[in-house]
Specification:
Elements: H1 11-17, H2 19-27, H3 46-51, E1 54-59, H4 61-78, E2 82-86, H5 87-91, E3 101-107, H6 113-124, E4 128-133, H7 139-143, E5 146-149, H8 162-182, H9 187-198, H10 200-219, E6 227-232, H11 236-251, E7 254-259, E8 276-280, H12 290-303, E9 307-313, E10 325-329, H13 338-355
Parallel strand pairs: 1-2, 1-3, 3-4, 4-5, 6-7, 6-8, 8-9, 9-10
Helix pairs in contact: 2-8, 2-10, 4-8, 4-11, 8-9, 10-13, 11-13
Bound molecules: 6-O-phosphono-alpha-D-glucopyranose.
Residues 60-63, 107-109, 112, 115, 158-160, 366, 368-370 line the site of 6-O-phosphono-alpha-D-glucopyranose (G6P).
Length: 373
Amino acid sequence: AAAEKDGYPSFMEKEIHDQPSAVGDTLLGRLDENGSLTLDEIKIDESVLRSIDKIVVIACGTAAYAGQVARYAIEHWCRIPTEVELAHEFRYRDPIVNEKTLVVAVSQSGETMDTLMAVRHAQEQGAKVVAICNTNGSTIPREADAVLYTHAGPEIAVASTKAFLAQITAAYLLGLYLAQLRGNKYKDEIATLLAELEAMPAKIQRVLDEVEPQVKALASSMEDAGSVLFLGRHVGFPVAMEGALKLKEIAYIHAEGFAAGELKHGPIALIDQGQPVIVIVPSPRGRDSLHAKVVSNIQEIRARGAETIVIAEEGDEAVREFANHVFYVPQSPTLLQPLLATVPLQIFACELAGAKGYDVDQPRNLAKSVTVE
Ligand code: G6P
């Protein structure tokens, strides 16, 4: 078993380190040298794909957070209304789905019963289903109309890490493919994004090489934390929720991810002296002044005594003034930041759980794949 872990103390730590190749392998063979995409595996008639007027992403757990990240990108590039819903909620609310709906089912295992039931329900209503899955020949891809495999390799640790990054990558490829197929005004942006995607494995590796030791040092000093809050905005919001989920799953610490803009509408009441808050800061180079808004959130919680732990982009000096700790990740387009910003959160949870003496690969009460409804 030690050999299977490549010398790491746990599968989770190994899988965190597999992420550059999980993303790289998921891109492999899908981009040509002109920067255009070929997804031969999407065996759904192009005319059907052109007529789609709604996309619904269904998934559970970490896969659902990958879907939430993907929604920002898919809606932006494709201009197709996109919903993301937990599979078990979707299935039982009589959702409006028809032949013009494309359902994207995201599942690492391909065996999650809640997701499978939602797939079947959508197909009964006439929807086409594309599965994004990490396990060859599992049930969800077998029943789907098409499958886009993530090539993360087997994921053993119960808490999902590399599958999450690979799911975001695959969902982005699907979004870019639909945008390409339907022809659209973001042509230049799409070409740039494909090139940027190819640069991600090396950037993820830099996070592992440079940021991991700093995150571990902080995490191992936080064994006594009673609760940790996570804040993010835009694609940083699902990243915040995923960071909180990791901490709940393996460190058994109460954690919650909030949309940073929602802070003033409630969560700020939770802030008192010493409350740790991890904030994912958007790129200062991005549009819509999201950066300034999140920096002012950090200022507000710091003024109320929070211990602020900030994930920001290299070169972002503005966050330093209000941060107790800053972890810098390489620069990237805003939509790709989740592939970098998630990594310190995974390391944080893994290290904290380890410091508390827990088995990070086999957390209590959880299963890798939940095959009952
Ligand atoms: C379980 C696992 C989670 C996972 C979720 C969805 O709850 O513990 O880590 O995210 O199922 O699994 P799937 O295989 O469908 O991605």
